[in-house]
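Supplementary Methods S3. Complex input for the 2-phosphoglycolic acid-bound model.
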Amino acid sequence: MRMPFIAGNWKMFKTCKEAEKFAEEFKAIYEKDDVRVAICAPFTQLAVLKKAFEGTGIGLGAQNMHFADEGAYTGEISAAMLKEIGVDYCIIGHSERRQYFAETDETVNLKLKQAFANGIVPILCVGESLEQREAGKEYDVVRDQLFADLKDIKAEEARKLVIAYEPIWAIGTGKTATAEQADDMCGAIRDIVEEIYDTDVSCDVTIQYGGSVKPANAGEILNMPEIDGALVGGASLKAADFIEIVNF
Ligand code: PGA
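Predicted complex, serialized as structure tokens:
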């Protein structure tokens, strides 16, 4: 049985001070033990949050990492650096990185391998643009992404994967996919994982929906049969909003 997994994606928001304040507020109201929870924060806040979340069971995630062990890659962060801080998860292939920072399926694939090699659970983001959905190509787009992103990744690693279905047109726009649209695609993603691997792997993989999830729509989305959790951007920035989603 897959446990629901709600992860916050803070993107490029919050200073260390603000992160500490969030952690104090959130810890005071967080009491769930039947939902997996994590915050994916900017690099500079990770050590602060690690300390603040100690003993709470709240997981910690980064939002990106490099695929090399180390090297002359100015401005980049390695998996070992994240691991040293105690990071559990790393978002990989977020559409904002694909769109603004030249992330490709090839680099996503290398980063996934590097995350697994270092014991970091990747949260792999896939999803179509509005144009692709309007052209009826959303399933093909997501299928192509998954085949390329998961190339040569072994089944025993893939089964630990978290996949976030994030339609680009629903991110930060206030436009949420309907619960049915999100559920359909999450089901399709599970079928594709089964096609790439087998039924066991597809049953183990956690599939989240992301894109304008907020307290008002979280219950409906998270109670859909194919949706195992959510990747939450804007609504994860306030402890009071995020807890409502966690307590869906
Ligand atoms: P949003 O972002 O909830 O602000 O739409 C989700 C995401 O990009 O992960």
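The pocket of 2-phosphoglycolic acid is lined by residues 9, 166, 171-172, 210-213, 231-235 (CB under 6 Å). The first helix runs from residue 16 to 29.
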